[in-house]
Write a structure and sequence with these properties.
The complex is a heterodimer of chains A (597) and B (231). Chain A has 597 residues and is of the alpha+beta class. Chain A contains 15 helices and 26 strands. Chain A has six domains: 103 residues, Alpha Horseshoe (Serine Threonine Protein Phosphatase 5, Tetratricopeptide repeat); 79 residues, Immunoglobulin-like, CATH 2.60.40; 64 residues, no CATH class; 93 residues, Tetratricopeptide repeat domain (Serine Threonine Protein Phosphatase 5, Tetratricopeptide repeat, Alpha Horseshoe); 104 residues, S-adenosyl-L-methionine-dependent methyltransferases (Single Sheet), CATH 2.20.130; 62 residues, no CATH class. The chains are: A alpha+beta (597), B mainly beta (231).
Chain lengths: 597, 231
């Protein structure tokens, strides 16, 4: 009898890909994906995304992206959305690479993130774990199991599925709301993703109805532990704790840990504050609100801040409104109100894109969220020195630009007087904050003329715009006075002899005067055919016409003399003008920003 | 239609023609002192009676765009060359003259003149309304112009005396208005010839050689300035 070893080897060698380890399956799935073998790649990538197989590293994130891409191509977009939600809930900093994945995946990931952010859960009360099968077939249902607990707990899954501790239920893949409750305990609510073939284990440790609330305000931010259990980054607000004695530990990055013991009474709110440098602005009401937040009186601080924003923020000094919005965002984030926190952060970006959040205020999670909000919020602002003196040929004018959503920014110089016109100064890609230096001389070397200008920055396309108005004045500079007009020109013509035509015209005019008078005159009454007055006027007209209409005869010598005077005068005047232009061109300019958005 | 009624109608017509139709930028005003040597000749049934003398008076002119209006008043005394043959007469004359420029060299003219003679023999008033045209031409320079005008007087009223049947007038002269100086000088000679019905065997003629000297002012940008030329 022949040995079965070769046959056994062949059977093992032909085992399906699903039998590979998680990382091997990811690699194999990626190869199939690159070969466009989607139906072969989906089970492999599904198998390889098992979180127990390794950390959510780059390979794992690529696996999620590729799996979502394939499912979208295969028109299984609800399953793609479920995988993306699961990945974002598992790894909150998961981001698809928008430069590499198709736009449909980017859109699906954004929708998944929005869904996850609106369905948070108290991770200190409820936890989820996943049991991965050896093989995954896409159409298979998933399983939800409620982990057993020492108290009689009940869970409602979705609209009509009920589980007791230790029970499991097969469900089509998708997102389900789970509400776990027990008599005498606070219920908890969470949303879980059910994946094909994967068992989602929901474990809860419900808090009694008498649980207290813990508020911890820390600056600089740190990581909080309660009885050795990591709670997360500070600040912490309205965190429920079992009544009794607890040990709090605060760890700062690169600093020594702080420990303190608190005793929480039933339904008691305990407020702990480790704020090194409180915020002060000089506005009494705003400072009162910030002080309330710093001592952990979160609810009161929020109310006071909102009142200040609605009543007093309009005329507040620059930066205070942004500080208030930043603090409100931070508080909303610590309360778990992620949507509200993002709304405040969005307002913050739109109010002042230049605002730089104090580094000790936002913890890394909030800072990352702020970065995302900033990149999604269309906003722009520009800043110019309020009052500066520059020399055009040597200096340039500094402008700072800040944007929310990155984009191509066009900077336009708008001349408002004497007539409006504008010209493009520069176009540049801005991410966050950028500086531009605007030359003050034209290509021909002429300096910026004094006047009123506006510099407008706009994001290419239909983006927002910002404006700063400038008044440019040339500082006083000594110029050479122009020459006085030439005083001693010689006469260039003299009167010549009257022409026959002039004599004829004169006689004609005189005759006309005589004729008109003679026509009206009654010689029998006046005693003269032509009255003496008519003779006087006619003669005067004739003489005046002959005298005044004599042609001018040019005097060549005088003309040449005058021309030489003019030429010399013009040369000297041009030299003075050029000298003055040079002096004016190098004269310092005083530039004042008269209005900023 | 009675002469007085037609005279009033023409007076209203004259006044209406001076109402400016639109605001214009060029407004000028001038005032002149006038010296004149008038001569009044009357021929009646073959005998001619002549009186002459000296007048003095003034003229006020106002111009807006193409329209011009002037008001002049003269007063003086006329005496006969042979003392005692004809009584001395005091003469006063008031003239309102309106002009409309059709072209820079041609103007239509409407004139009303009231002239009164007063002597030991009595008082006599002449009211004349005339229409006509005046042409002018510069003599080598815009500052010196020659002018000639012809007027027909359709309405003439003489108090307590027969109205003339036909009246014609002329005015010729030379005017000097330097652009750089606000003065204006004018020398003119005018004749008014009055013809009566043949049955009366009467005709009269009024002549005056006039010399006037005045100052001009122009309104520019809301301010009046001396001088006649645009700044």
């Amino acid at each position: 009898m022949r040995s079965p070893a070769p046959l056994l080897f062949l059977v093992l060698a032909a085992a399906p890909a699903a039998a590979q380890t998680g990382r091997q399956a990811l690699t194999a799935g990626a190869e199939r994906y690159l070969l466009a073998d989607y139906r072969g790649a989906v089970p492999l990538l599904s198998r390889g995304l098992d979180p127990k197989a390794g950390p959510p590293d780059r390979l794992w994130k690529q696996g999620v992206e590729r799996l979502a891409d394939m499912l979208l191509v295969l028109r299984r977009d609800s399953l793609a959305a479920t995988w993306l939600r699961w990945a974002i809930r598992l790894a909150p900093d998961f981001e698809v690479d928008a430069d590499l994945v198709p736009p449909a995946v980017v859109r699906a990931a954004a929708a998944a993130r929005a869904f996850v952010e609106t369905t948070p859960h108290d991770r200190f009360v409820a936890r989820t774990a996943f049991e991965w099968p050896i093989t995954i077939s896409a159409p298979a249902p998933g399983i939800v199991r409620l982990a057993p607990a020492p108290i009689p707990i009940t869970a409602r899954v979705g609209a009509d599925q009920f589980l007791r501790g230790g029970e499991a239920r097969r469900l089509p893949s998708g997102s389900y709301e789970v509400v776990v409750s027990a008599p005498g305990y606070l219920p908890t609510r969470l949303t879980v993703e059910v994946l094909p073939g994967v068992t989602t284990v929901v474990a809860v440790s419900l808090l009694p109805e008498t649980a207290g609330l813990l508020y911890v305000q820390v600056r600089p931010w740190g990581t909080l532990f309660v009885d050795g259990q990591p709670i997360g980054y500070t600040s912490v607000a309205a965190h429920r704790v079992v009544p009794g004695r607890h040990v709090l530990r605060l760890e700062h990055k690169g600093g020594a840990a702080r420990d303190t013991t608190i005793v929480v009474g039933e339904r008691q709110a305990v407020r702990v504050s480790w704020v090194g440098q409180p915020d002060t602005t000089g506005d009494p009401q705003l400072d009162r609100a910030l002080a309330a937040l710093d001592r952990g009186d979160t609810e009161r601080g929020v109310v006071l801040l909102r009142q200040w924003l609605s009543a007093d923020a309009a005329g507040a000094p620059q930066g205070t409104q942004s500080l208030a919005l930043a603090r409100l965002g931070e508080v909303a984030w610590s309360l778990g109100l992620r949507d509200s926190a993002r709304a405040y952060l969005r307002d913050l970006v739109q109010t002042d894109p230049f605002y730089s959040v104090p580094p000790d205020l936002f913890n890394p999670e909030l800072d990352a969220a702020f970065g995302r909000v900033r990149r999604e919020t269309p906003a722009i602002a520009i800043q110019a020195p309020r009052d500066t003196v520059v020399t055009p040929v040597r200096d340039s004018f500094p402008i700072r630009i800040a944007v929310g959503r990155p984009g191509e920014v066009r900077l336009l110089l708008r001349l408002t007087r004497p007539r409006p016109r504008d010209s493009l100064l520069v176009a540049l890609h801005v991410e966050g904050v950028a500086g531009v230096r605007i030359p003050l001389t034209a290509p021909d070397g002429s300096a910026l003329a004094p006047g009123r200008y506006a510099i407008e920055a706009e994001v290419a396309g239909t983006g927002p715009s910002a404006l700063v108005e400038l008044t440019v004045e040339r500082l006083r500079v000594d110029t050479v006075p122009h020459q006085a007009p030439i005083p001693d020109f010689r006469p260039e013509t003299r009167k010549g002899s009257p022409s026959l035509r002039t004599v004829g015209e004169g006689i004609g005019l005189g005759a006309l005067a005589l004729l008109v008078s003679a026509v009206v005159n009654d010689a029998r009454v006046s005693g003269r055919a032509i009255p003496r007055g008519a003779w006087l006027i006619g003669g005067s007209l004739t003489l005046a016409n002959i005298a005044l209409k004599r042609p001018g005869v040019p005097i060549t010598e005088h003309i040449a003399y005058n021309e030489s005077l003019r030429r010399q005068w013009n040369e000297e005047d041009r030299a003075i003008a050029a000298q003055n232009a040079t002096r004016l061109g190098t004269a310092p300019l005083r530039i004042r920003a008269t209005r900023e958005p | 239609m009675s002469p007085s009624l037609s005279l009033r109608r023409l007076t209203f017509l004259l006044a209406g023609s001076f109402v400016p139709t639109a605001a214009t930028s060029g407004q000028t005003v001038s005032a002149h002192a006038v010296l004149a040597a008038p001569k009044h000749s009357t021929r009646l049934t073959g005998l001619t009676e002549r009186v002459d003398g000296a007048w003095a008076g003034g003229v006020l002119e106002f111009g807006v765009g193409r329209l011009g209006v002037s008001l002049s008043g003269m007063r003086g005394r006329l005496t006969a060359p042979d003392p005692g043959s004809v009584p001395e007469r005091d003469v006063g004359e008031l003239t309102l003259d309106g002009q409309y420029g059709l072209r820079p060299w041609l103007r239509l003219e409407l004139r009303y003149t009231a002239r009164a003679f007063s002597s030991a023999a009595g008082y006599q008033r002449w009211d004349l309304v005339g229409v006509g045209a005046a042409a002018s031409r510069d003599l080598g320079t815009p500052a010196v112009r020659a002018f000639v005008s012809l007027l027909y007087f359709p309405v003439v009223n003489v108090s307590e005396q027969e109205r003339p049947s036909f009246v014609l007038g002329s005015d010729v002269g030379i005017a000097l208005a330097p652009s750089k100086l606000p003065i204006a000088v004018m020398l003119s000679y005018r004749i008014e010839r009055f013809s009566f019905a043949d049955a009366a065997a009467r005709s009269e003629q009024f002549e005056a050689l006039t010399l006037s000297l005045g100052v001009r002012a122009r309104r520019h940008a809301g301010r009046w300035r001396l001088g006649g030329a645009e700044p």
